[in-house]
Design goal:
heterodimer; A: mainly beta; five-stranded mixed beta sheet; 1 helix; 35% strand; B: alpha/beta; TIM Barrel; five-stranded parallel beta sheet; 10 strands
Chain lengths: 66, 268
């Protein structure tokens, strides 16, 4: 299945949820905030929220700043 | 001075120095400088993860150890102040802070909506619009703003928990360019006034506090100092000295000399 993550086209396995997508990408849960098609997916819904073909996904973390 | 606490919204801090986490050469230096500064509030930015480097950033490791990001941390903890650096519209800033809230670090937030990449001066209309939305959504909003008493008053009227007028452009180190305006802002404001941006060295921080500002937020002045840890300590002392001088009340300025030794009893 093809999605766009942080502006980058990516092919990922079919049938993933947000939680399994983060596991697939080897990110630590809880340290990455998730938006799909500009709507935030709350952490409590990561296990149930399905990732679909052509979804535009944003994965965001904290970095140094002033 | 332990009773001289700074209260912003429901938060109370004993340090009046807020520090950023950008521009440091290493995460070890970041931690050492923040410790030397005595700051309890540390700013961070939000950015896309790097899909080619999936390990948690070293800053995340530091925040997990030292900040409110982890509820398990005992003892003194840093309060994370997520910013909206790089946002040019109210929509982008609101979106960024909603994501920060999703990460559990948005109990207080630094709103900045930039209007121009060269000066990094704020866009007043967009800042006001974002503040209006964020306050309505329950955020404790600390807006970076121009050193204009009218904009500060509007931000206060919208329900911001503090205002953060700049001293000079972000990262410029030019010091307090308009102490007169800051004085007027302080005279009008019923919420804390935190000088944010433009401080270059410890005397700048002391001057802000002597004017009566309630705190100072800085990043580059420490991170780009020759010795960031020593400068962080200097800033801590500058903030403390300036605050004490403000509370003490300075002597009046006089045009001419006024002898300190008695005029009477001179030996003739």
């Amino acid at each position: 299945m093809n999605v766009v993550i942080n502006g980058q086209p990516l092919t990922i396995p079919d049938g993933l949820t947000v939680r399994s997508l983060l596991e697939h990408l080897e990110f630590t849960a809880g340290l990455v905030a998730v938006e799909i098609n500009r709507a935030i997916v709350p952490r409590a819904e990561h296990h149930a929220a399905a990732v679909r073909e052509d979804d535009a996904i944003e994965l965001v973390q904290l970095v140094g700043g002033g | 001075m332990s009773i001289d606490a700074l209260t912003i919204g429901s938060h109370t801090f004993s340090s009046r120095l807020f520090v950023g986490t950008g521009k440091y050469k290493s995460v070890e230096l970041t931690e050492a400088a923040i410790d030397a500064s005595g700051a309890e509030v540390v700013t961070v930015a939000l950015r896309r993860v790097d899909l080619n480097d999936r390990s948690p950033s070293s800053l995340m490791g530091l925040l997990l150890r030292r900040s409110s990001l982890s509820s398990e941390n005992a003892g003194r903890r840093w309060t994370i102040l997520p910013n909206t650096a790089g946002c040019y519209t109210a929509d982008d800033a609101v979106r960024t802070l909603r994501l920060a809230r999703e990460l559990g670090v948005a109990s207080i937030v630094k709103l900045e909506v930039i209007g121009d990449p060269k000066t990094l001066y704020p866009d007043n209309e967009q800042t006001l619009e974002a503040a209006r939305i964020l306050v309505k959504e329950g955020f404790t909003v600390l807006p970076y703003c121009i050193d204009d008493p009218i904009v500060c008053r509007k931000l206060e009227d919208l329900g911001c928990a503090a205002v953060m007028p700049l001293a000079a452009p972000i990262g410029s180190g030019l010091g307090i360019r308009n102490p007169h305006n800051l004085s007027i802002i302080l005279e009008y404001a019923k919420i804390p006034v935190i000088v944010d941006a433009g401080v270059g060295t410890a005397s700048d921080a002391a001057m802000a506090m002597e004017l009566g500002c309630h705190g100072v937020l800085m990043n580059t002045a420490i991170a780009e100092a020759g010795n960031p840890v020593l400068m962080a300590e200097a800033m801590r002392e500058g903030i403390s000295a300036g605050r004490k001088a403000f509370l003490a009340g300075r002597m009046p300025r006089r045009r001419y000399a006024n002898a300190s030794s008695p005029a009477a009893g001179l030996i003739e």
